[in-house]
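Usage

Read records sequentially. Each one opens with the input sequence:
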Amino acid sequence: MELKLSPQLRQLVEETREWGRNEVRPAGLEADRNAAPLPPDHPYFRKFVDSGRASARAQAAEAPEGRMVRMVVLGEESAYWDRGMGVATPGAGFPAGSVNATGTPEQKERFLGPFRELKDPHWASFALTEPGGGSDTAAFRTRATRTDRSYVLNGAKCFIGNAARADWILVQATLDPSLGRAGQRSFFVEKDTPGLIGMKIEKKMGLRAYESVSFSLQDCEVPAENLLGGEDREAREPRAPGSGTGAYGATMGALNSARVGVAASALGIARAALDEARRFAKESGSLRHPRVRDELERSLRKLRAARLATLKAGWLVDVRRTNVIESSMAKILAAEIAQEAASLGMEIVGLEAGAGDNLIEKLFRDAKALNIVEGTGQIQRVIIARQLVGLPR
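and closes with the structure output:
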């Protein structure tokens, strides 16, 4: 495993840092102060597209070599300035991985092609989580019923990123609940499709810069060609490492990669919190106290360990090796140090942080979500136990 960054990647980090300092953090703070996502017509999104960053991200997502390690390094730097804005930025986002992995050539061109050369801000979305579904990714109730020429979807989804502004949502549904995971399929549901109703942007404690949306599907009819991979997918779909076969396997493979991305985001938040805490401790004189120095050193040590775990989890994806255990470990370690670092920052800054005007207070609220999204820390421990000690399923 090579830990040295290439000159090209170092340059991208510097560009991401400059963009983050000048554009991302101010936009993230604006959204946080307003307690709502920036609207789709906000000047930030226009500037993001005009800068070429949206198209560059889309093309990088399809790069065959070194994609995940690159994502870890740049994801940490981006989240250092504002993790919520990283999710909110225009692009195909999370579902692009599933579409690239299992979509037909026609679907890749139709649904991902427009994002390769964006001229205006556009978004896509991925809908898995349901009300009452908990952490069981296979226990959803949204049904897909085959008709002569289409599929009809009925169900409800919640906490779906960017769904209210998306051109299309990749919706997870089941053809038959009795089939369990084998019944799962993914469907492209395009904006303004009749039956796609009840869009509600939820209020959140942290990560306020992007939409978390609840919506319903009521007799929502989609063409048969909107079934991801086509109706003969089972005969030709590649195996998702460590996750089984079929649509469920493809989703789990995508989530394994997404967990690495969440871990990278947690690293960025942790680093931002420690930098802010260290700055305040130095300016206030509290850095002279041995306990403050010891706590900062311990957190920095944990941050470095979490970074190494996250890089390894990403590297395993790039060399096409199973990373189920490593991605779960990385997410646990990184999410925990993000919360620990933000909590330490709150303690060091003290009353000023509690007043709500200090960056550390925002980071404290943002960090909590990373222990929850893409599988809670408790679920990650179950996944690891199943792999390492044969915990019964």
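Summary fields computed downstream for this record:
- The first helix runs from residue 7 to 34.
- The beta strands are 123-127, 143-146, 150-161, 166-174, 184-190, 196-201, 212-223.
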